[in-house]
């Protein structure tokens, strides 16, 4: 083993898990205090409170009910060890009913949004306990499972903290539902949507209407709705097909998304944006355009993927693609077609480019008077997506070999043409 690989293994398996477990877990409570300095931090916040636990229990029960309800199902990609996950395909309806329910509740009980805002620290404390407990359960469940065909579970070389951090099973189920659909989509993503609406209403009630805050929430709302409309497409992404159900993914969706992804909206309640109406309108229009292009990029790939004979037209011309041959884990030869037309011929991950631009634009209504704080999500997303680009490339190189190198010669850029 070369020293460089030994060092990399030390970082990945022994250093990153404990450091990230401590840093990110503590950061959620710090953010709740920093965003709302009118509420002093108290140590008991980490345990939650009765109000916070009621909110959490209500949301989890709501999410489970919608996954238990009979509905159309969607089969995800079959794993290398032969398992085909099945998901509920009622995400768009779940989104609309959830938002409508929040608006009705806030109308019937006008103080609820301010109460959630003021108790955000204890709510995050409760979510943290719930998420860590779930991750521990999933780790124990995987350890006790003896008939798993997943080769990762048969490999005993990984340290315990790495297993807890990365996760063990690829598609675990609890209470009759898929864990990733529950934590990622039906709790994490819907909390992102509901919380930013709650913070917007709380800001209006405490300080009056603010156009910048409204733009911030509207752009995110359009983006999040796009996710739920395309929820079944999400089941083909790396989060589902590569990442395992552990701290990184499940805790991230149950705690990091509601605390960090919503932070600028939470921050803008106390720290009111100061940009004028014209600037807000321009930001909104540019943000809308960025979200549309992000959707358009994904839509092109979805149309190509679902076209049986690949005869779909993109930008008015028949789609061009590269055929690559690969072997499955059982030695069978398969063929994939990598899209070269439309946006996918401009850069390999140009959908990330528009996603980053949208994130910057819904962070910028606060201007630059508050420093880096409103832009934390954008900075994090940039690092996350660049890391994901390299992870995806490594996966594709392992899968397609020379075919992937040929594809990269045809589509030279990753994120920004002529830059990266």
Automatic annotation (TrEMBL):
Q: Which domain of life is it from?
A: Eukaryota
Catalytic activity, reaction form:
7-dehydrodesmosterol + NADPH + H(+) = desmosterol + NADP(+); cholesterol + NADP(+) = 7-dehydrocholesterol + NADPH + H(+)
**According to its record, what are the GO cellular component terms?**
endoplasmic reticulum membrane
Where's it found, cell-wise? Endoplasmic reticulum membrane
InterPro entries associated with the record: ERG24_DHCR-like, Sterol_reductase_CS
Q: What is its EC number?
A: 1.3.1.21
Q: What class of enzyme is it?
A: oxidoreductase
Q: Name one GO molecular function term.
A: 7-dehydrocholesterol reductase activity
Principal cellular location given in the protein's record: endoplasmic reticulum
Which PROSITE patterns did the record assign? Answer: STEROL_REDUCT_2
What are the entry keywords? Answer: Cholesterol biosynthesis, Cholesterol metabolism, Endoplasmic reticulum, Lipid biosynthesis, Lipid metabolism, Membrane, NADP, Oxidoreductase, Steroid biosynthesis, Steroid metabolism, Sterol biosynthesis, Sterol metabolism, Transmembrane, Transmembrane helix
Could you state one GO biological process linked to this protein?
A: brassinosteroid biosynthetic process
On whether Endoplasmic reticulum is a keyword of this UniProt record, the answer is: yes
Query: To which protein family does this belong?
Result: Belongs to the ERG4/ERG24 family.
Q: What's the protein name? A: 7-dehydrocholesterol reductase
């Amino acid at each position: 083993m070369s020293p460089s690989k030994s060092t990399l293994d030390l970082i990945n398996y022994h250093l990153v898990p404990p450091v990230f477990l401590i840093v990110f877990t503590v950061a959620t409570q710090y953010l709740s205090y920093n965003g709302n300095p009118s509420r002093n931090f108290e140590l008991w916040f980490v345990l939650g409170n009765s109000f916070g636990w009621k909110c959490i229990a209500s949301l989890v029960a709501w999410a489970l009910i919608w996954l238990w309800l009979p509905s159309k199902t969607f089969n995800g990609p079959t794993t290398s060890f032969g398992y085909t996950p099945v998901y509920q395909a009622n995400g768009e309806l779940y989104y609309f009913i959830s938002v409508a329910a929040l608006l009705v509740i806030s109308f019937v009980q006008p103080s609820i949004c301010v109460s959630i805002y003021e108790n955000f620290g204890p709510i995050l404390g409760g979510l943290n306990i719930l998420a860590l407990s779930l991750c521990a359960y999933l780790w124990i469940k995987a350890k006790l499972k003896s008939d798993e065909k997943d080769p990762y579970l048969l490999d005993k070389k990984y340290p315990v903290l790495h297993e807890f951090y990365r996760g063990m099973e690829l598609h675990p189920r609890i209470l009759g539902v898929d864990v990733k659909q529950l934590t990622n989509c039906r709790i994490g993503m819907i909390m992102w949507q509901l919380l930013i609406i709650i913070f917007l209403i709380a800001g209006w009630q405490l300080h009056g209407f603010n156009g910048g805050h409204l733009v911030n929430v509207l752009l995110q709302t359009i983006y999040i709705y796009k996710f739920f409309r395309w929820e079944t497409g999400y089941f083909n992404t790396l989060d589902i097909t590569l990442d395992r159900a552990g701290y990184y993914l499940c805790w991230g969706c149950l705690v990091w998304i509601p605390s960090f992804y919503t932070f600028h909206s939470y921050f803008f309640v106390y720290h009111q944006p100061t940009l004028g109406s014209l600037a807000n309108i321009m930001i909104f229009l540019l943000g809308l355009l960025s979200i549309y292009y992000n959707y358009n990029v994904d839509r092109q790939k979805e149309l190509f993927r679902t076209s049986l004979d690949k005869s779909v037209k993109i930008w008015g011309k028949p789609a061009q693609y590269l055929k690559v041959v690969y072997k499955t884990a059982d030695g069978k030869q398969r063929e994939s077609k990598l899209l070269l037309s439309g946006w996918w011929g401009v850069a390999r991950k140009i959908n990330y480019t528009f996603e980053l631009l949208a994130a910057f634009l819904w962070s910028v209504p606060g201007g630059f008077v508050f420093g880096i704080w409103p832009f934390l999500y954008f900075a994090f997303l940039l690092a996350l997506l660049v890391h994901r680009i390299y992870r995806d490339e490594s996966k594709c190189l392992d899968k397609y070999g020379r075919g992937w190198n040929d594809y990269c010669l045809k589509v030279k850029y990753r994120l920004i043409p002529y830059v990266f």
